[in-house]
Amino acid sequence: MGKRVALVLAGCGVFDGSEIHEASAALVHLSRGGAEVKIFAPNIEQRDVVNHLKGSPSEEKRNVLVESARLARGNIQDLAELKADEFDAVIFPGGFGVAKNLCSWAVDGKNCTVNEHVNSTLQAFHSAKKPIGLCCISPVLAAKVFPGCEVTVGQDKNVDGRFPDAETAAAIAELGCKHICKNVNESHVDKANKIVTTCAFMCKAPLHEIFDGIGTMVQEVLKLA
């Protein structure tokens, strides 16, 4: 029997929800690993809505669960219904929706608050010693909820212009966590906390390298599960 994995989304679209390529990559690698996946998202209003064609804010309102259902092909549940004892692991793809909808990092940085259901989900898996996989900006959730943990968002310097958000590493360190520098096709395993992270689109890299990096994260999560 394959590992049971919960995938938590934050909407649909890089600028105001889950990054679609990251979510798809995670699902492909989980499928390849024989995992049984169920998808969840919080039933809340998005912090904002972005016109992805123009890259500018829109006045409309959207719901995180409804938008995430696009990625889940309609097969999705409210995050409030997720029970950690029914799963072996949980994975959070990235995208600005993580920093806007799952927490307030986009506005408040290291002083952010984490959505109550996201926080309780992370705490439940951690307490049960079940692995947590995070990519792109999602590792800030672990940094906020689990002081002292180890994560990666890529590099702590903008190496060759490929890591424009490298200052995130410093903010993670200010939260009392250890940032581990990794390349885009690598992941980091915090064995003590069973937290696996990879930088994904925090690095300007070819899509296949991001896909491969997410693959290493998924593989490590399944090994730990």
From TrEMBL:
Signal peptide (residue range): none
SUPFAM superfamilies in the cross-refs: Class I glutamine amidotransferase-like
Xref: InterPro entries: Class_I_gatase-like
PANTHER family reported in the protein's UniProt record: ES1 PROTEIN HOMOLOG, MITOCHONDRIAL, GLUTAMINE AMIDOTRANSFERASE LIKE CLASS 1 DOMAIN CONTAINING 3A-LIKE1-RELATED
Protein name (record): GAL3A protein
Organism of this sequence: Smutsornis africanus
Classification of source organism: Eukaryota, Metazoa, Chordata, Craniata, Vertebrata
